[in-house]
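Collaborator request, handled under Task 6.
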Amino acid sequence: MRFLFIKILFLLTLLTLLPGCETLKNLQSGDSGSDAEYTGWDAKQFHEKARAAMEAGNYQKAIKLYETLEARYPFGDYAAQTQLDVAYAYYKNDDPEAAIAAADRFIKIHPRNPNVDYAYYLRGLVNYNRGIGFLDRFLPTDASQRDPGNARNAYDNFAELIRRFPDSKYVPDAKQRMIALRNNLAMYEVHVARFYMKRRAYVAAANRASHVVQEYQRTPAVPYALQIMRQAYTKLNLTDLAADAERVYKQNYPDGPPVKESEGEKTFVEALWDSIGFDE
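Structure tokens returned to the collaborator:
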């Protein structure tokens, strides 16, 4: 635990250095913010330089080049592709609002473009990864404890992609992400039900757990929801309902939940609290 706390402090220190590193990176790449260097460039040069900036990970410079390209050549050969590329550049630059706005704009302007399915897919991808911060990439966290709003939006985005473009090459990946999203949404409801149990709001806990059993069938969250239902009904002296929940649980999960909850999956706050040694 002490090692984890030291690791957290190291990562927090590293976070404070990142803005300076980004500034240095921009200076080294020649991104001075002036348009003078673009004098005389044609559309192809803008496109190639923007793509090179993307490949180098200099997303801010890529965004500037794409936007300048679109402004100078709004009806050129690269116009449609540029609008799609800048949406992806915003996504890589951790600007989800701008990325979704750019994707929506592309869908509105180019509804019959051969690549419009990617714009729908990108919207889902942005919401799927929204809320995953720097620390989440290095510390063990439970995705089901994040804001469910983004997960629901991503699920709807991917569902729309599949409905509109069932033959799209992005459909297989979207389906896999939808499975993960549905599992996380179900476990989020379990976390809420457990919250109610801790505060002795047994009716609310039972209702929340029952919702999981009814709406999220065949997800890893169901056995945990059944356990909560049994506990809540027992506390409420509803012995018949508690027995029903126990019967369904034993019938379907005689060996316990098929997917175990990892003890390492903790929120950042939980991990920090454990490392310090504080009690709730």
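The cover message to the collaborator said: "The chain is about 70% helix and 0% strand. Residues 4 and 275 are 6 Å apart (CA to CA). Please let us know whether this matches your experimental observations."
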